[in-house]
Amino acid sequence: DAGITQSPRHKVTETGTPVTLRCHQTENHRYMYWYRQDPGHGLRLIHYSYGVKDTDKGEVSDGYSVSRSKTEDFLLTLESATSSQTSVYFCAISAPRDEKLFFGSGTQLSVL
Amino acid sequence: GDSVTQMEGPVTLSEEAFLTINCTYTATGYPSLFWYVQYPGEGLQLLLKATKADDKGSNKGFEATYRKETTSFHLEKGSVQVSDSAVYFCALSDRRGGNKLTFGTGTQLKVEL
Predict the structure, then answer these.
(1) Euclidean distance between CA atoms A99 and A6, whole angstroms
(2) From CA A71, how far away is CA B24, in angstroms rounded?
(3) Is the Cβ pair A99, B44 closer than 8 Å?
(4) Cβ pair A78, A89 in contact under 8 A
(5) End-to-end CA gap in chain A
(6) Count of A–B CB contacts within 8 Å?
(7) What is the pLDDT of residues B22-74, one digit of tens each?
(8) By percentage, how much of chain A surpasses pLDDT 70?
C-alpha cells in the first residue's frame, strides 16, 4: 500500500466551526489531491497541488482552502463548515508522468 | 467539460455470473481511461487502465477495451466472486498534465452465493 495517512478518520463538528484535515505521504510524490465523495456524484476534485506552495482549485473549491508547506503534507481547511460539506474526503497522490493515483483511506466528516 | 457516465447500481449477481458495467465518456481531447475499485471502508485503488484506442486493460480477471468510436470503456468479468463486491468507478485523465481525474458516479456491485 502507498504510504498515505489521513487524519482524522472521523470527525463530527458544528456548523460555522473551522476544520482542518491532514494528508501525510511517505512516497515523496510531487502531486497531491483532495477529493470529496458523495452519493450520486462520485468523486469530485476540490484542490490539488503540484509541489510545495503550488496549489490550484478543482471543480468544487468554494468554501475550502489548502496549504502545502512540505512535500509530504497537504492540508484541507474548511474555514466555516456547513452541512453541505458533510462528506467523505479522500487524499490522493501521484508522480509526474505516471497517471496512476494512490488514495488514502478517507475522512468521514459530519457537519451538524 | 469532460464527463464520465456509468450505469446506475446496485448491480446484484450470483457468484460465477458474467459482469458488465457500462461506462461512456465525453472529452475534448484524447484521454486515458481507468477503472478504480473501492472496497468497503477503504480508499480507491486502480483496477486497470488503457491509454489509447483499442487498448485492452486487464487485471484480476477484469477487462475493459478503449473504444474511441463509441467513446466507451465497459468493464467485464467472466465469472464474479463474492470477494468482487465493491463500488467500481470509471474515470478519465485529460492528459493535459497534472493527472487530474474525472470520475463517474460509481456502480455498486453485490455478488451473492
Answers:
(1) 21
(2) 35
(3) no
(4) no
(5) 33
(6) 55
(7) 999 999 888 999 999 999 988 999 999 999 999 999 999 999 999 999 999 99
(8) 98
* A21–chain B Cβ distance below 8 A for any pair: no
Give B28: exposed, middle or buried? Use CB within 10 Å, 0-12, 13-18, 19+. exposed
Rg of chain A, C-alpha, whole Å: 13
B71: left (phi over 0), alpha (psi -120 to 50) or beta: left
Asked if A42 and B103 come within 8 Å (Cβ–Cβ), the reply is: yes
Residue B66 forms contact with A (CB below 8 Å): no
Nearest to B98 by CA among A49, A59, A45: A49
Say how many C-beta atoms besides its own lie within 10 A of residue A9's C-beta.
12
Q: Touching check for A89 and chain B: CB below 8 Å?
A: no
Q: What are phi and psi of B82, to 5 degrees?
A: -55, -35
What is the H or E stretch that residue B13 is in? Answer: strand B11-14
Strands B62-65 vs B75-77: parallel, antiparallel or unpaired:
antiparallel
**For A2-40, what is each residue's pLDDT tens digit?**
699 999 999 999 999 999 999 999 999 999 999 999 988
Is the CB of residue B49 less than 8 Å from the CB of residue B57? Answer: yes
Burial class (CB in 10 A: 0-12, 13-18, 19+), A65: middle
Give the distance from residue B33's alpha carbon to the nearest chain A alpha carbon, in angstroms.
10
Chain A contact for B43, CB < 8 A?
yes
